[in-house]
Amino acid sequence: MTDDLKISVIDHPLVQHKLTLMRMEETGTKDFRELLEEISMLMAYEITRDLPLVDVSINTPVAKCSSKTLNGKKMGLIPILRAGLGMVDGIVKLIPTIKIGHVGMYRDPKTLKPVEYYCKLPTDVAERTLIVIDPMLATGGSAAAALSLLKEKGAKHIIYLCLVSAPEGIRAINEMHPDIKIYTASIDEKLNENGYIVPGLGDAGDRLFGTL
Ligand code: URA
Q1: pLDDT score of 72
Q2: Ligand 1, atom 4: closest residue by C-alpha
Q3: Residue 41, annotated ligand binder?
Q4: 8 Å CB contact between 166 and 191
Q5: What CA–CA distance (Å, rounded) separates 97 from 72?
Q6: What is the mean pLDDT of the chain?
C-alpha cells in the first residue's frame, strides 16, 4: 500500500531508462557514476521548474525586449556522505552558483541510531532553499536525522531528492518532516532483512566508488 505516501515520482522516460541501466548488476562503476550524474541533472531540471523568475530588460542584436531571468533565489546543495556525492556534479552543472554543504551520518552498531560525524554548511543556511541528496532512501533513519540536524542549524526550506526509495523510508520522513517535499525516480517494493531496497540497485556507495 503506497497510496498514503507523500512523494513526487519523476517519471521522465530518460530518467527511467537510465535508472534501469543503473539497477542492472552488470553495470560497472564507470557507467554507474556517469548515469547517476546524468539522472541527477535530469531530476534537478524537474524539481527546479517552480523557481521564481523576474522580468529584465535586455538588448538582443535585433531589438530591445523584456525577458525572464531567475530572481536570484539562494540555493544550497547538501549531499549526505558518501553516496550523495555522486549526485553533486550533475546538479552543479545545471545550477553552477549553488553553495554546497556536507553532512555525514553513520549508524551506531550498538544503538542502531544515526550519529552525525561531519557537518559543514553554508553560513547563511536559513536563507537558502536546500536540496538534500542521497541516492537511496531506505529506512529513512539517517535521512530523517540529517534533516533534523539541518533544521537545528537553522534551515527553513528543504527539498529531499533521492533516486530509489522504499515505502518505509518515505513514511519515516513524511511522519518526522511533513514540511519537506520528497522527490524520487522510483518507489520500490520493500526493504529486505539487511536493510537493502528490493529490487533496488545494491549498495549505491560501493557501486559508485568501486568498493565492492
Ligand atoms: N543504501 C544503499 O546503498 N542501498 C540500499 O539498498 C539501501 C541503502
Answers
A1: 87
A2: 203
A3: no
A4: yes
A5: 10
A6: 96
CA distance readout (Å), 144 to 30, 37, 106, 149 = 30, 24, 13, 9
Ligand 1 mean position, distance from CA 37 (Å): 17
Global pTM exceeds 0.90: yes
* ipTM tops 0.90: yes
Q: Which residues pair with 193 in a beta bridge?
A: none
Phi, psi of 206 (to 5 degrees): -65, -40
Q: Which of 23, 25, 136 to mutate to test the pocket of ligand 1 (most atoms within 8 A of CB)?
A: 136
Size (the chain), residues: 212
Nearest to 78 by CA among 60, 63, 91: 91
Q: What are phi and psi of 187, to 5 degrees?
A: -100, 110
Distance CA 75, CA 98 (A): 6
